[in-house]
Specification:
By secondary structure, the protein is an alpha/beta fold. It is built from eleven helices and eight strands. Strands 1, 2, 3, 4, 5, 6, 7 and 8 form an eight-stranded mixed sheet that branches. The protein binds guanosine-5',3'-tetraphosphate.
Length: 283
């Protein structure tokens, strides 16, 4: 579900659904995109998820800079969150989550035990902005072996719980959070990772900003990917032109196809072909 357009009505509806669903769970598993962990969060989740155990998953960690993944783990852990680095697509890191859920819900489990309530499963839901990998994660976390528990009395009709084991149940539909567009950098980073509609920014502008960032933070990556040379003071627009020549992006009459090269650069970044890159650093 890439490229989502948000209107105030969507946000109100998403928020209302989230408020309802969150009441049903003990722990909120929040996915963020490891390439832009701050921009891909929505601060409203802190308010919505207060009084709940919280786990943050740095998803798409395979596309992000491994050193920065570690830095982000420390950042979130220092702020009291349980946090894990995962790749929902391959399932890497996903196995460790069950243990972390138990850890995050230890107080609740102890409280239940003191009250004589034994074997009540912990209930969890997955939340995140569009395209962070919520559905992919639910599939890989629940796997094929899972059993749906069906509707339960007292639970809104239609809610399905996936029983992962006797100690853990997961709501089968994720909570969709809306991005916070107001901040320009947030909008730019979300566009770069492909979480918001491309039409919000022109592809050539996106490629231009991406090139400027990569040249500063990941020198040599573009040169290697596109087999080009980038003189020190070169304008990013001229770098796009070099990519056009190197990758033979031409329009009729040998005119350079700037849009084609721009789209290639943005896609290559999104698919990790330029390298493992993180747009944001903690701090
Ligand atoms: P959502 O429910 O939060 O909206 O996200 P969804 O699971 O649909 O995932 C969005 C895209 O991100 C999908 O790619 C999915 O395969 C990819 N994805 C999810 N988790 C990871 C991860 O950890 N690493 C990588 N590299 N990609 C991940 P898509 O382009 O929509 O489909 P496809 O390319 O998989 O066919």
């Amino acid at each position: 579900m890439a490229n989502y357009q948000w209107y105030p009505g969507h946000m109100t509806k998403a928020k209302r659904m989230m408020q309802e669903d969150i009441k049903l769970v003990d722990v909120v598993i929040e996915l963020v995109d490891a390439r832009a962990p701050l921009s891909s969060r929505n601060p409203d989740i802190d308010e919505l998820g207060k009084n709940k155990s919280r786990i943050i998953l740095l998803n798409k960690s395979d596309l992000a800079d491994p050193i920065k993944n570690k830095a982000w783990m420390t950042y979130f852990a220092d702020r009291g969150s349980h946090v894990l680095e995962i790749n929902a697509k391959t399932g890497s890191g996903v196995k460790s989550i069950q243990g972390v859920v138990q850890e995050a819900c230890r107080e609740k489990i102890e409280r239940d035990r003191r009250r004589g309530i034994l074997n009540r499963p912990v209930r969890a839901m997955v939340v995140g902005i569009p395209n962070v990998g919520k559905s992919t994660f639910i599939n890989s976390f629940a796997g094929r072996a899972c059993a749906k528990t069906g509707n339960k009395p007292g639970v809104t009709k239609g809610k399905q719980w996936i029983r992962l084991n006797k100690g853990l149940e997961l709501l089968d539909t994720p909570g969709i959070l809306w991005p916070k567009f107001e901040d320009q950098t947030v909008g730019l980073h979300l566009a770069m990772i492909g979480s918001i509609n491309d039409e919000i920014m022109h592809l050539d502008e996106l490629a231009y900003d991406l090139i400027r960032f990569l040249r500063g933070e990941y020198p040599g990556f573009l040169e290697k990917r596109y087999d080009i040379e980038i003189p020190g003071e070169q304008d990013a627009y001229d770098t796009i032109k070099s990519v056009c020549v190197s990758k033979k992006c031409y329009l009729k009459g040998e005119k350079l196809d700037i849009m084609k090269a721009s789209s290639m650069i943005v896609d290559d970044f999104r698919n990790g072909k330029i390298g493992r890159i993180t747009l944001e650093i903690p701090g």
